[in-house]
Amino acid sequence: MLEDFQEQQRKKTTRIRSFMDFTMGGLFIAIGIALLLYQVGTLGEINRKGLGVLFILYGIWRIYRGYKKNYFQ
Q1: Which of 26, 47, 48 is nearest to 37 (CA)?
Q2: Where are the domains of the chain?
Q3: How many CB atoms sit inside 10 A of residue 73's CB?
Q4: pLDDT more than 70, % of the chain
Q5: Structure confidence at residue 40 as a pLDDT band (50, 70, 90)
Q6: DSSP track, the chain
Q7: Vertex 64, ends 60 and 65: CA angle to 5°?
Q8: What percent of the chain has a predicted confidence (pLDDT) above 90?
Q9: What integer is the mean pLDDT of 6-11?
Q10: Once rounded to an integer, what is the mean pLDDT over residues 23-42?
C-alpha cells in the first residue's frame, strides 16, 4: 500500500516537472530568439548574441530533460 502511494507520488511529480521543463524550455528559447533579433537595452552586439545563443541552448536542454523524464535515477 505504501509502495503504491509512493509510485503515485512519483508519477505526479514526474508529470509536473516534465510540464515545467517544457514550459520553461519554450520560454528560454523565446527569450534567446528575442535577444538575437531585437536590440534590447545597452548590451553590446556580441554580448547580446552570445547570451541569446546560451538561452536557446539552455531551453533546448530543458525540453530534452522534460522529454526524457529520468528524474529519479
Answers
A1: 48
A2: 19-68
A3: 4
A4: 96
A5: low
A6: -HHHHHHHHHHHHHHHHHHHHHHHHHHHHHHHHHHHHS--TT--HHHHHHHHHHHHHHHHHHHHHHHH-----
A7: 120
A8: 58
A9: 90
A10: 90
For the chain, first and last CA: distance in Å?
A: 22
**How far apart are alpha carbons 14 and 38 in whole angstroms?**
36
| Residue carrying C-alpha cell 547570451 | 51
Which set of grid coordinates corresponds to residue 15?
508529470
Rounded mean pLDDT, 51-58: 96
- 16: cell is 509536473
Scan for cell 503515485, then name that residue: 8
Cell numbers describing residue 38: 531585437
